[in-house]
Amino acid sequence: MTTLTAPPKTAPPPARPRKSPGTAKWKRRIPLLPALIFTIAVTQLPFVATLVISTFQWNILKPGERHFVGLDNFTFVFTDERLRTAVLNTIVLTASVVLLSVVLGLGLAMLLDRRFTGRGLARTLLIAPFLVMPVAAALLFKHALYNPDYGLLNGTLNTVYRLFGADNGPTVDWISSYPMPAVVLSLVWQWTPFMMLILLAGLQAQPGDVLEAARMDGASAMATFRHITLPHLRQYIELGVLLGTIYIVQTFDAVYTITQGGPGSQTTNLPYEIYLTMFRKYEYGQAAAAGVVVVLGAIVIATFALRTIASLFREEASR
Amino acid sequence: MTHAALAAPGARFKKLLHRGDDHGSAPKLSPLWTFTAWLATLAFFAPVAWMVLTSFHQEADAATNPPTPFAPLTLDQYKLLFSRDITPFLLNSAMASILSTLLVLALAVPAAYALSIKPVQKWTDVMFFFLSTKFLPAIAALLPVYLIVKDAGMLDNVWTLVILYTAMNLPIAVWMMRSFLAEVPKEILEAAEVDGAGLLTVLWRVVAPVAMPGLAATSLICFIFSWNEFMFAVNLTATQASTAPVFLVGFITNEGLFLARLCAAATLVSLPVLIAGFAAQDKLVRGLSLGAVK
N or C terminus of chain B with fewer C-beta within 10 Å? Predict the structure, then answer.
């Protein structure tokens, strides 16, 4: 982590001549310690435990057979068909949700950055999806929108068909026919406002005089966007993508609620598969090994995330 | 900024109406784009509107095809929820969220102080350590946490959730509070110290006024994340300590039978966060981006 460190924000504080340097140092550290110790205890120790458990053959249904197996669980993780599917599903799910919500969020942020009638209200309404409880949102999509018989999607289709004189609209079972897009859509709906808020903050941090100068020089809207706005937004887009990725990789609520990983294992992502291994198959060793693999994947993403945040940090410091 | 300062007094009111900063002279949207913006807004808001509307309908009017948005309104679903079983779940949620938020603040505020106002050496390393814990997927910790909690006899206990939610939100809170405390002007701090003001006086007179809005925003974010948390709640609680999201998933099996009641429950459990989020939308961005973006 040390390589990611940003330079200190402030100049070193003035020396305190009267006290010995050691005491002063500890006086500074004391307020930090409770938080640091708590965090280490609650977040790092379980991970160490996961590492240990991952080297055991341990099925809770066969209590007598618990024994050390070294890296066997990892071999299993990397060769198991279900887990490979889960990895693939996680990538598809995360990539499509992040990509779609960033693009939609950018579009909305561009619109909301301009003045128009009722802009404040529009912004308020737009962030609502992000504030709805994720489990509630997932249930809402499952029952109120996707339901084949009385869901809003088919209901609207039906109404439109009748408007044009047809007897009845098609009855589409959205979740069975398009399981992955159904989960993706509900998550894009929840995450677009998040991306919009971050990108809007980025747009509004744009120096107005540069934009005005560009306008005076007769640059087209498209050119201004490509050469001034987009480079300026880059850091904000990166931040949105990385924070979004970190959260969406962990998606559990939506999969648990909307599809239960099905049909088959078509929407089973890694968190849900680990949950199944743990609470349905009771294979603790395998679940722990899969957990370790997830953490390794997360570390790769996090390295990029930390670098991006460090650069924002530096920018703040230089201000 | 300069433009705002030069603007006529009426502009102030106009700015309030439009919310958010107009950098320089933000151009107006053309009518066509205004229409597009509103269309997109309504498309995103439609599921929320539908949820609230359906919650005020009878079951028979909720599950129809084509939909019947103009069916008579009723409070029956909410009455049913309260008369049956939702209250203990809401209380558990409130307890877990509020207690963990208080605990987070108690730990995060001194830490943020030590990371900004009187920074310890290598404070950025500490900051990134806190942040890195946020990147560990919670699912990877679920198994050991489950085993430890089970051994300690703390399954189905609200305090288990309080501790886990505190750990979950502490890094975010430290980051946010640091970014707010960093705004306390150094010159004033130094001037106060030169004048011989004690630590408590400095905290109360100089730091607190600047940090209070930040403290409120931080609490809000921690409350939202704890209130919405599902994975730990569903796997570590059973009957005594279950929270609102766990109550909601009870509807998964009731395929279609109780759509209106489901919508009422979904509206009810989302309401605290919706109200808080709407009230503090400006602060939300900073919280969501860990204070990295203003």
Answer: N
Report residue B253's pLDDT band, with 50, 70 and 90 as the boundaries: low
In Å, the largest CA–CA distance within chain A is 90
Position A213: which residue type?
A
Q: What is the DSSP string of B208-244?
A: HHHHHHHHHHHHHHHHHHHHH--HHHHHH--SSS--H
A114 φ/ψ angles, rounded to the nearest 5 degrees:
-95, 165
The answer on pLDDT for B23 being more than 70 is no
Nearest CA in chain B to A272: B139
- In angstroms, what CA-CA distances link B287 with A3, A48, A318, B144, B292? 25, 30, 21, 29, 9
Q: CB neighbours of B230 closer than 8 A, spacing ≥ 6?
A: A134, A135, A252, A253, A256, B245, B246, B249
pTM here is: 0.84
Interface of A with B in 238-277 (CB under 8 A): 239, 243, 246, 249-250, 252-253, 256-257, 260, 270-271, 274-275
Q: Work out the average pLDDT over A72-85.
A: 86
Name the residue in chain A with its Cα closest to that of B294.
A201
What confidence tens digit (pLDDT) does each residue in B72-122 have?
888 888 988 888 788 999 999 999 999 999 999 999 999 998 888 888 888
Residues A128/A263, Cβ–Cβ less than 8 Å: no
Query: Which phi-psi region, left, alpha or beta, contains residue A151 (left: φ > 0; alpha: ψ -120 to 50)?
Result: beta
Task: Please choose, from the candidates A101, A93, A89, A182, the residue with its C-alpha nearest in 3D space to the C-alpha of residue A143.
Answer: A182
- Cα within 13 Å of Cα(B240), Cβ side: 9
Chain B positions touching A299 (Cβ under 8 A) are 135
